[in-house]
Specification:
By secondary structure, this protein is α/β, with parallel strands linked by helices. The chain contains seven helices and ten strands. It has helices at about 5-20, 30-40, 75-80, 105-120, 140-145, 150-165, 210-220, and strands spanning about 20-25, 45-50, 65-70, 85-90, 120-125, 170-175, 180, 190-195, 205, 225-230. Bound molecules: NADP nicotinamide-adenine-dinucleotide phosphate. GO terms for molecular function: catalytic activity.
């Protein structure tokens, strides 16, 4: 992006964050999704949580609208997307050697179609470290987890990422790739960020709360537009 364009985008984002932000969250009933909701509400944002199981969501707030909808159907997404500034996805598939997975790619396609229909451009979605091979990936990820019970999930994350790269030049996406997620509270430390398939020499984990905060920071930042960034917590790196 040339510098004039990014200054203009930064001004647009700043202006909208000063007025008010409204975000749609999908995968909102998962542990990261729930943290995205509370962090967004804490920032004063309006939130539309698109869920398949409303009973899993017991946050009540006047700025939170919970909608039961199918995230694989673009018209159901579009119906609820009007007026939103961004979509945040914490959708996740179920691990398992024999468990098929297409929820990242299929929900991704439906969300992008809905965004185009409504004219929304900002998308921030989670995949994971190592969606493609990289010699810097931790041994356990590269040779144990990825070829076994995470293989179908990671394969579909890769399909989703490739779709964004090849077919979504009109969408301001940021793909956030975390390592193992923990339920530790945020330590308020800086999230380590690196473009690519992992963060080299960093801890192999990040708290879901820090991940949620980072994703929400992306909503109002011109950084990482049309980028795929790996993140990590900033605790001590594991010994090699
Ligand atoms: N766990 C880790 O260590 C780890 C590491 C790297 C990356 N990640 C990625 O980080 C993200 C967040 O993970 P998490 O563990 O916090 O959450 P999660 O348990 O993976 O939550 C999954 C969310 O996606 C929703 N979902 C799945 N399939 C759906 C479908 N067909 N229709 C509608 N909703 C659907 C679930 O809805 P229901 O509540 O209705 O089931 C839930 O809200 C995921 O993408 C995960 O793959 C996780």
């Amino acid at each position: 992006m040339n510098s004039l364009k990014s200054v203009y985008l930064a001004m647009q984002i700043k202006a909208s964050s000063i007025t008010k932000m409204k975000v749609m969250i999908i995968g909102a009933t998962g542990p990261t999704g729930l943290l995205l909701i509370s962090e967004a509400l804490a920032r004063g944002y309006e939130v539309v949580a698109l869920v398949r199981n409303p009973e899993k969501l017991n946050i009540i707030h006047d700025k939170l609208k919970v909608v039961q909808a199918n995230i694989l159907k673009s018209d159901e997404i579009a119906e609820n997307l009007k007026g939103c500034d961004a979509v945040l996805s914490a959708v996740g598939g179920r691990p398992g050697i024999m468990t098929p997975c297409d929820v990242y790619s299929k929900s991704g396609e439906a969300v992008v179609k809905a965004m185009r229909d409504v004219g929304i451009k900002r998308l921030i979605a989670i995949t994971a470290w190592g969606t493609k091979d990289d010699p810097d990936l931790p041994f356990i990820w590269r040779w144990v987890l990825k070829p076994s019970f995470l293989r179908n999930i990671v394969k579909d994350m890769e399909v989703f990422e490739d779709f964004l790269t090849k077919d979504c030049a009109d969408i301001n996406y940021t793909v956030v790739r975390p390592p193992k997620l923990t339920n530790n509270p945020s330590e308020g430390e800086k999230v380590l960020v690196q473009e690519g398939l992992c963060v080299v020499d960093a801890p192999n984990s990040i708290s879901r709360q820090d991940l949620a905060k980072f994703m929400l920071d992306c909503v109002t930042s011109p950084d990482y537009i049309r980028k795929m960034v790996s993140v990590a917590g900033s605790g001590p790196a594991p010994k090699k």
